[in-house]
Amino acid sequence: MAKNKLRRFREIKEWSNVFEPTLSLDHTEFFPLKGKWNQDYFQNDQPIVLELGCGKGEYAIGLAKHFPNKNFIGMDIKGARIWVGAKEAVENEIHNVAFLRSKIDFITSYFAPEEIDEIWLTFSDPQPLKPRKRLTSKSFIDRYREVLKPGGIIHLKTDSDLLFESTLEEIEEHGYTCLEKTWDLYGELPEDLDERTKDILHIKTHYENLFTAKGFDIKYCQFKIE
Ligand SMILES: C[S@@+](CC[C@H](N)C(=O)[O-])C[C@H]1O[C@@H](n2cnc3c(N)ncnc32)[C@H](O)[C@@H]1O
Predict the structure, then answer these.
(1) How far is the CA of 49 from the centre of ligand 1 (A)?
(2) Nearest to 183 by CA among 204, 215, 161
(3) Which pLDDT does position 24 carry in this prediction?
(4) Residue 213: in which H helix or E strand, if any?
(5) Cα-based torsion angle of the residue sequence 19, 25, 30, 32 in order, rounded to the nearest 10 degrees
(6) Is 194 known to be catalytic?
(7) 47 phi and psi, to 5 degrees?
(8) Which pTM value belongs to this model?
């Protein structure tokens, strides 16, 4: 393994804002923060927002800076990517963000029913050949439903026509409530949108920068799954 990766893995082990329960590879073990993220980690009672497949965590960090009155957790399986966001949080003393290294498939092992207020899916893999692995497929949405508060919102930002279209189909097929939808986020932002929402939608992740540079339109939707 590359030296740089090994160094990153060593460093995140020492930071208190990264949790790596997946390393034990036993997802049946009880995760001590389940149901206690606020009580035992954030030590407040603020709403908790997840960024799933956070990569380097730009969205989790960006949102945490905008909303000091909410708590954010970025989740991804790739430790060397999480390292980037975790380092920024440590260096800038951003205390309302943490990172969880594990597969999203096991999300219900890490969060209790109704522990989560909102979910962001940022540039998730479109999985062209494995639709059931898409983070907006029914089996994933059913897991999110277990941990989300009633009325909790899911946001999806993507460059992928395939993922966007299949998500809109899932929304239609399963009767979720679509609250916002645009095929061209930056071309179609309503002029009367408040500045704060504009700022949030303009936070750009690593993958968003890559795809924008290639000329892809960025799609966005938000929906409820009650
Ligand atoms: C295309 S990248 C996007 C990363 C980041 N959100 C961005 O926009 O730059 C997708 C990320 O999702 C993660 N991912 C995909 N499926 C996952 C799963 N089932 N569990 C955990 N992480 C997953 C990958 O490791 C990868 O970092």
Answers:
(1) 17
(2) 161
(3) 57
(4) helix 206-213
(5) -10
(6) no
(7) -60, 145
(8) 0.94
Q: Whose CA is nearest to atom 3 of ligand 1?
A: 123
Tokens representing 125? Answer: 């893999």
Cβ 125 under 6 angstroms from ligand 1: yes
Q: Is 55 in the pocket of ligand 1 (CB under 6 A)?
A: yes
Give the pLDDT confidence of 5-55 residue by residue, as tens digits. Answer: 888 888 888 899 999 986 555 556 689 999 999 999 999 999 999 999 999
For residue 149, the CA-to-ligand 1 centroid distance in Å is: 23
Q: Which of 20-34, 52-66, 95-109 has the lowest mean pLDDT?
A: 20-34
CA pair distance 151, 158, nearest whole angstrom? 23
Amino acid at 52: L
- In this predicted model, what pLDDT tens digit does every residue of 158-172 receive, in sequence order? 999 999 999 999 999
